[in-house]
Amino acid sequence: MTSYVTRKSPGDTVWFTRDRFGMFIHWGLYSMLGGVWNGRRTDNVSEWIMRHLEIPVESYRALAASFCPENFNARQWVQLAADSGMKYLVYTAKHHDGFAMYRSACSRYNIVDATPFGRDPLLELAEACAMAGIKLGVYYSQAQDWDEPNGLGYGKPDSEKNYAQYYHDKCLPQLRELLTQYGSLGLMWFDTPMSMTAEQSRGIYDLVKALQPDCIVSGRIGNGLGEYMSTSDNFIPTLPFAGDWEVPATLNGSWGYKADDQNWKSPAQVLDILVRVNSRGGNYLLNVGPDGSGMIPQQSAEILRKVGGHVRRNGDAFYATSLTPVYPYDIRWCYFTSRPYRLYAHIMDGRTNVHLPCINTPVKAARLLETGESLHFTQKPPSVSGVSRLFVDLPERPSDFPYCVIELELEDETIAFDTLDKL
């Protein structure tokens, strides 16, 4: 679901537009099932298994008695985010199934009180994030709660429920816990507002701002509120959106752990999406789904670390970059990000002779960003064709992952491309 947002005053999302790349973590009781319930396999995302396979509330609740994720290690999760070049992390404190993945005083249906695990993963994550300098965000399903009689989305029709009771007795109290017990939060990530009224969305927004004024709110709070917009899941806009926005996405087909889903994106595919999103002014929030033991799948970790090596070595081309004017040609082997007096050309394939037409701003120098190596280049002014041309020579690179970034030092602060009327 795509939500549109009302922007606050400038500066509220400075860290968000600086950090550009984050880790989403979907983890809950559904992670134990891995997409299978009593021999039945869900064809949908695994975190919706309770609803899609119509698991009775009491049967689903019984899973908590055996939930003991002995392999959970907050520092390892946070270290993977750092190794992957990610600067913030968003953790599912409560998904639509209603089970709190933190210690909640207002509902004993939580990972500390209802399971033999007896630990608060969110508290451990908050400590690990603070130590590593990773910004912590929290996901909370504010309308859907399939465990509660008056939570939306499951059981009897929503029109027959008293959502106001759920909102006042569970939603707001749990949000108060999250906003007062885990230190400074970078963002609150809400989801599926369903039939919430504008007054109810405003009540949540005001609570966040009263308790943590610097915490930003996602547009999926509903009713036009929030500091930034989240696109539909796994959808990449063709052109930049106005304001601040992100693409929430999966590494395979599911958000929660699904044992038989091996449809992993390759490191090259992930990097391509990250660069495309960043080049259009957005953030990329990429999900991992730890299994029931608390382990992030090895395939996820391997993919992310390989991507992260390139991101960290070319950090200036990702973090704190500005929105670059739309390039007039659709070339899938190059995307652009920029800073004042710098244009970064992300070369996605193995070509060594790079031809970039329409770069109108004079170029002073060209370098391979990762190493600082000077690159030979030629810039030609508009000719008979009416467009300027830039040629850059690149060294040979590994054929299995030839990605690199050309840093172009400009004579002017901002980049100008030849406009469409010249083409």
Summarize the structure in words:
Mean pLDDT is 94; it is low at 1-11. By secondary structure, the chain is of the alpha/beta class. The chain is elongated, with a radius of gyration of 23 Å. Strands 7-6-5-4-1-10-9-8 form an 8-stranded parallel sheet. It has helices spanning 14-19, 30-33, 49-52, 57-61, 74-83, 121-132, 163-181, 198-211, 267-279, 298-313, and strands spanning 21-25, 36-37, 40-41, 88-94, 135-141, 187-191, 216-217, 229-230, 245-249, 283-288, 334-339, 342-347, 353-357, 363-368, 373-374, 377-380, 389-393, 404-410. It has 10 helices and 18 strands.
Number of strands: 18
Bin the helical content. Answer: 10-25%
Mean pLDDT: 94
Which structural category do the helix and sheet elements fall into? alpha/beta
**Radius of gyration using CA atoms only:** 23 Å
Summarize the structure.
This protein is α/β, with parallel strands linked by helices. It has helices at 14-19, 30-33, 49-52, 57-61, 74-83, 121-132, 163-181, 198-211, 267-279, 298-313, and strands at residues 21-25, 36-37, 40-41, 88-94, 135-141, 187-191, 216-217, 229-230, 245-249, 283-288, 334-339, 342-347, 353-357, 363-368, 373-374, 377-380, 389-393, 404-410.
